Predict the structure.
Amino acid sequence: MQISRLPQALVRQENGMVKDHVVVVNEEGAQPLALRISGAFAGYLAGALAELSASPEAVGVLEKRLEREGLMTETRTLFSDMVKTVRKRHEALTS
């Protein structure tokens, strides 16, 4: 998962919200997904990744949420990519 600020030429206003960041999920998959998001949501995601990186227990909680029925496809993709990203960071730190 990567979160980046968009160049001004790519910033859009959608549904009354300025979308000035992009998050790329499922980078290694057959169909990577790039979502234009607001700065506030980008900050939320970055904070969530930082919290997950600091707490292995939090990763376990997120993995349990993935087991639940009824999650939207986009939510499942985002959560699973967050878990993958944090697991990679943990492996890089321990090796």
